[in-house]
Amino acid sequence: MAVTAKIPTARPETATSRTGAAAVATALVLLVAALAVVDITQGTAAVGPAEVLKALTGRADPADASVVVASRLPRMTAGLLVGAALGMAGVALQAVSRNVLASPDTLAVNAGSYLALGLFAVTGVSLPLVASSGVAFVGGLAAAAVVLGLSGLGAGTVRLVLAGTALHLGLTAVTEGLLLLFPQQTEGLYQWNQGNIGQNGFDGVLQMLPVAVVGLAGLLLLARRVDALALGDDAARGIGVPVRSTRVTAVVLATLLSAAAVTLAGPIGFVGLCAPALVRPLTRRFRGFTGLRRTVPAAALVGAALVLGADVLLRTFVSADTAVAVPTGVVTSLLGAVFLVVMSARLRDTAGSAAPDRLRIRSRAVFLTTLGVLTLALAGVTVAAVLLGDSKLLLGDVVNWLQGRAGQTVTFVLDTRMPRVLGALLAGAALALAGTLVQAVTRNPLAEPAVLGVSGGGALGAVILVTTVPLAGSWSVAGAAFAGSAVTALLVFGLAARGGFQQNRLVLVGVGVAAGATALISLLIVLTDPFNATKALTWLSGSTYGRTLPDVLPLAAVLAVSVVIAAGRHRELDLVFLDENTPRLLGLDIARWRLGFLVLSVLLTASAVAAAGTIAFVGLVAPHAARALVGRRHTRVVPVALLLGAVLVCTADLLGRTVIAPAQLGAGLMTAVIGTPYFLYVLVRARR
User: pTM score, two decimals?
Assistant: First the structure.
């Protein structure tokens, strides 16, 4: 449908003249130019500014000219192209979703592209760069469509971020499983996924430049229609704007830009989030920056400055030899995580949680039946986990082992298998209870311990020890994981304390801290040797391999105490989960109880991470499914969630040990594969 009326462009009342906008635009261009010049002069070779100048004027030695032309100039131009593409993609996604935290990262675009390329790498098919861009585009577009379609455009910041974060976890888990199963075919894919603008010649830049130009041209042509969406859907339709097709086209163009950047340099994290956020104050202050036609070029300049600035910063403070191994994307992810935390702490807390009172209250008979069925399921899964594996046993073997009359082979198998089974059961129950507490405090059925950054902090602590002290024992790794979780929790709670731990701010700050922890983990894995990297990746996949009985005893103790507290304080949990006003009317200090339940969830999550590594989605699936089965009263939710969590992780561990035996997949990867479809179902149900 053609636009039949002139589309107005919002102009803030505080906007000043176009002269100031021109000055700011000139300053941005000069900043990008200065960073580009500095970036060319940095590198491992002894080619300084004087040699670079000679190379550019054709008077340098052939060796120096080769370094500049074949390596440094392509790296600089790749940084410009990648930063500009991500900045433009981010501003387009935020415009059509009306969400300040929408970006290729929060919409799982990068994770979708990563998985698509990983699937092609496994097949052994070698694709040219343009074809790889097409594969990345399809994967990224599919992920963005899922997140935007299920979370709803304009449905709230927290909902979109949680949807993107959860889908990112699931897609990344599948890709990491491919890395472990097919190490030769996917060699180098993990390093690529961290984002590196280093190039070998101009071929890649020249092939991706037309793709970025098409994306830019499309956004400029679509700009006035996108601007009309800010007036509201009804108003936009009233002036002849096809709302749905405009949004779809803008998302496709943004994904095309992201795919070009991903293909050229791998995922460069958070540039698509930070660049539009830095441009946004300019739109409020300068009239010349209002409208998508002006914000797109501005975001492109800011994005280019961010990528080149990160590369320059890295090479300024880190030795040249080390800087080569550190991907630029890790630096931008760290900066972006800090930026996300700051933005989240300043965002106004708005209602974004599902209404718990819509859940039906089940009868006592339903509760007892559910409890009985889950108990039988737990018993069956436990028996199967004990008997099945790389060596299959009989019940008689287990009886003989318990009586001390088993043979040497059976004794060895059960001595190593029983702690694994027990660790999986306890970790699943602990994560389920932690998820129950987190969802009660945030009143959001899409929340889980991972969104508070606690799991990421525990993983970071463990990876630090694994990569720096390769001979560290399991108790040392567990202690490091616990310390990492504790530090992360203190950071998140401290930043979210303003306003009484309001749920949306708490969730968003946790997501930002978790992103920072993930970036640091990637940095450590990239810098360490291949043996330690494989060990760290295996631990991160949520493996119970090598666990002994002493390793799981601390988890058992923490879980026992936590169950007693949660059962004894189920009424307070019900009130905290209900709403903001009712607990206060009844004299309940809601901030203090929130903090108390959060601390308990941190202890549970840290203990589970220390015993079994990072296991995703259990804290999401188990409590949500428990409420769906038995209602919202926590006196019933807690035991059902405990059983569901134990069954889920034990089943995942069993499948990981048996499906591709003798090779193994971590329980965390299996729960992610199981949990992602369930999460999508939860989103569909919530939309309805």
Answer: 0.77
CATH number for the domain harbouring residue 58:
1.10.3470.10
Crossing angle between the packed helical segments 408-442 and 364-387, to the nearest 10 degrees: 150
Range(s) of the domain holding residue 661:
379-687
Q: Is residue 345 part of a domain?
A: no
What average pLDDT score do residues 58-64 get?
68
Please give the Cα distance from 481 to 464 (Å, whole number). Answer: 9
Q: State which of 283, 299, 320 marks the end of a domain.
A: 320
**Structure-block tokens of residue 240:** 């002849």
Confidence band for 639, pLDDT divided at 50, 70 and 90:
very high
Q: Is 252 exposed, middle or buried (0-12, 13-18, 19+ CB in 10 A)?
A: middle
What is the residue-wise DSSP string for 190-229? HHHHT-----SSSHHHHHHHHHHHHHHHHHHHHHHHHHHH
Cα 524 to its chain centre, rounded Å, is 17
Q: At what angle do helices 243-265 and 109-123 cross, to 10 degrees?
A: 50
Count CA atoms closer than 13 A to 178's CA, side-chain side: 23
CA distances from 89 to 75, 96, 261, 296, 416 (A): 21, 11, 10, 9, 50
What 3-state class would DSSP assign to 469?
coil
Residue 28 CB partners (closer than 8 Å, separation 6+): 298, 301, 302, 305
* Last-in-domain residue among 277, 295, 320: 320
